[in-house]
Amino acid sequence: EREVNATPVRSDGDLDAGLRPRSLADFIGQPRVCEQLELVLHGARGRGGTPDHILLSGPPGLGKTSLAMIIAAEMGAAIRVTSGPALERAGDLAAMLSNLVEGDVLFIDEIHRIARPAEEMLYLAMEDFRVDVVVGKGPGATSIPLDVAPFTLVGATTRSGSLTGPLRDRFGFTAHMEFYETDELVRVLRRSAGILGIDLGGDAASEIASRSRGTPRIANRLLRRVRDYAEVRGDGTVTVDTARAALAVYDVDELGFDRLDRAVLNALIRAFGGGPVGVSTLAVAVGEEPATVEEVCEPFLVRAGMIARTPRGRVATAAAWHHLGLTPPAGALN
Ligand code: ADP
Predict the structure, then answer these.
(1) Does residue 221 have its Cβ closer than 6 Å to ligand 1?
(2) Where are the residues of the annotated region Large ATPase domain (RuvB-L) (predicted)?
(3) What's the 43 CA to ligand 1 centre distance in angstroms?
(4) Does the CB atom of residue 66 touch ligand 1 within 6 A?
(5) Average pLDDT, rounded, for the chain
C-alpha cells in the first residue's frame, strides 16, 4: 500500500490566492478606485459592451491582480493572465490575442516591462481589435492581418511613469492604488483570520496592521508568521504580545520597516550624510536591484515621511535621523 498524504503541500502563494477578494463588495479599501471602477463596469454592462482598457498602477501587494480578477468576475468574463516579461516576442502576444473570445479580460502584469515589438502589436489590438502578424523574414516577409475579438486589457504596473505615452494613452481608465490605512488593513486581517480559522484579538489585529507597510499582501504574510509563533510558542491565540514577539523574530520594526527599508535608511544617512543621493547609488550601497529599491522600498519610505524626493536625489528627513536614534543636522527636511 502506498502512503497517501491527505494534506497537499501549500505554499504562501496558494494561500494568497485563497485570501483574494472575489467581488468589488468584498474588496476592502481603495474607495475612489472602487467607485470609479464600478461606474466603468456598470456603464459597459448597461450597454452590453466590453469595458474600456484599464490600467492599475501602484506598489506591489496593493491588490492589482485581485482587482483584475474582480473586473472579469463582475463582467462574467474569463480572464487570461500573462506578464510583460513573458511577452518577449510579438508572436507570443499574437497567440494570446488570437485565442481571446469576445468579452475576455486579458491581464498583463508588469506591463511596463513588455518588449517593444509586442508593445507595438498591442497598440493596434487595443485600438482596432486587430493584429498584423509578420510571416517570414527579409524582403519576402508578408504581414497578415488578423481580427481580435473585442476584449478588455487590464494592465498592472508598479511604475506607470515608465510606460510609453502611446501605451498609456490607449487605456480608457487608470486607477492609482494608494497604500492602505491601518483601519482598512485591520479589516483585511479580520477577513483573512476568518478564512484561515485564526483566533485574532482586536488589539493584535491593529498591531499587525500598523506594521504592514500599508500593504494587504504584507498584512496577510505577517498574520501567517504570527500564527506560526502563536501555535508553536503558545496556545494558538494571537494576542498583542504574541504579535509583537513574533514580529521581532522577523525583524519587522514598530513602523513596519523590514531589513531592506532599514538598510536603505542606514545607507542614506550613514554613508551619504542624509543625501541627496541617486536611487541607483543607494541600491548599490545596500546590494539590491535599483528597481526593488525604487518600486518596493522607496514608495513606502516616502509615504512614511522618512525620505523626500528632490531634483538632486533622495534626502533623509529629520524623522529618519530620529528613527535611527541620531540627531538630524541643522536644516534637515521635516
Ligand atoms: P498586486 O497584484 O498589486 O501585487 P494582489 O492583488 O496580488 O496585489 O494582492 C496581494 C494579496 O493581498 C491578495 O492575495 C489578497 O489576499 C490581498 N489583498 C489585496 N488587496 C486586498 C483588498 N482590497 N482586500 C482584501 N485583501 C486584499
Answers:
(1) no
(2) 1-180
(3) 25
(4) yes
(5) 92
